[in-house]
Design brief:
Shape of chain A: globular
Radius of gyration of chain A: 17 Å
Oligomer: homodimer
Distance between the termini of chain A: 21 Å
CATH class of the largest domain in chain A: Mainly Alpha
Order of helices and strands of chain A: HEHHEEEEHEH
CATH topology of the largest domain in chain A: Arc Repressor Mutant, subunit A
Number of helices of chain A: 5
DNA sequence: CTAGTTGCAAAGAGTTTGCATGGCG
DNA sequence: CGCCATGCAAACTCTTTGCAACTAG
C-alpha cells in the first residue's frame, strides 16, 4: 500500500533533521535540492501525515501549511514552549507537566499566557469498529 | 487600532457558539447568513487571531484552514482529548495535567497514543523589545 | 472628522490532479 | 510483472489585495 522510496525517505529525513521547526512545502522542496517535484513533495507529505509520521500545522498570518516531524518518541510526549510573538519553539525534553510548568513559571524566562494540552488517542466509539 | 464592529462581533459569537469544533471560513460565512463577504470574513478571522481570540488550525487531507474559538478562559488551560481516528474533540474542564492524564488512562475510555502540551507565552528575547 | 472596515471583483498563492513514464518488490 | 511513485503542466481552491464607499468612536 505504500513503498518507502528513496525520495520519500529523503523527505522524511529532511524533516527529521529539522525536528525543531515546522517547515513549509517550499522549504522541504528546497532541502531536497530539487530532486523532487512539488507534486511529489505534497503527495509524500500527505502519505506521511496519514501514517502519523508528521503533523500538519499552520502559521498565523500566512496561508501556507507547515509540516513537523513526529516520527520518533523523542518528538512526542514532551512540552513545547511556543513564543506567541516570534513564533519560535523551545523544547523541553521532560515527559510531562505540572512540575515542569511550575519550574518554567519560576524561571521567569518565559511568561506563560496560555497552555494547551492535547492528548491524542482513540476514543471508545472508534475502538469498537 | 481595531473596532469591534457588529459584523466582527457576529463572527466571533458564531465561533463561540461552536466552541467544540473548528470551523472553516466557508462554514463561518454560511453561519453569518451572507451578511458578510468572504473577504471580510478572512480579514476578521485574521484580526481576531492576532488578538489571540481564536486559533487557526488545519485538517489533514484538506488545504482549508480551520478556526477555533479561544476567547474565554473556559477554552484555555484545559485539556482536549482528540480522537486520531474520527477527529472528534472531547473537553475536560480540568485545569491541568498529570493527575488528569492518570485518570484518563485509568478510565480506559480513551487510549492515549501521544500527548502534546503547548505553553503559549512570550520569550525572554521578545519581552525586551 | 479620522482611522479602521466592508464589498466587490480580480489577482495571487498554495495545493491537487490527469496522464504518461519510471521504479520498487 | 503489477502496483505504486514521479514529473510535468494545467486546473483548482482557498486566501489576499486594491479601491471606493461606508461606519465606529
Amino acid at each position: 500500500m505504500s513503498y518507502m522510496t528513496s525520495q520519500r525517505k529523503a523527505l522524511f529525513e529532511a524533516l527529521e533533521s529539522h525536528r525543531d521547526e515546522a517547515l513549509s512545502a517550499d522549504q522541504i522542496t528546497a532541502l531536497l535540492g530539487e530532486r523532487a517535484s512539488r507534486s511529489a513533495v505534497y503527495r509524500n507529505l500527505s502519505a506521511l501525515e496519514a501514517q502519523g509520521l508528521l503533523k500538519k500545522t499552520t502559521a498565523s498570518g500566512s496561508s501556507k501549511a507547515l509540516y513537523r516531524y513526529t516520527g520518533s518518541e523523542q518528538c512526542r510526549d514532551h512540552l513545547h514552549l511556543e513564543c506567541s510573538k516570534c513564533g519560535r519553539t523551545f523544547h523541553l525534553m521532560a515527559p510531562t507537566t505540572d512540575a515542569v510548568i511550575d519550574n518554567v513559571l519560576r524561571d521567569a524566562n518565559f511568561s506563560i499566557d496560555r497552555t494547551s494540552t492535547v492528548l491524542y488517542g482513540v476514543c471508545e466509539k472508534c475502538r469498537d469498529n
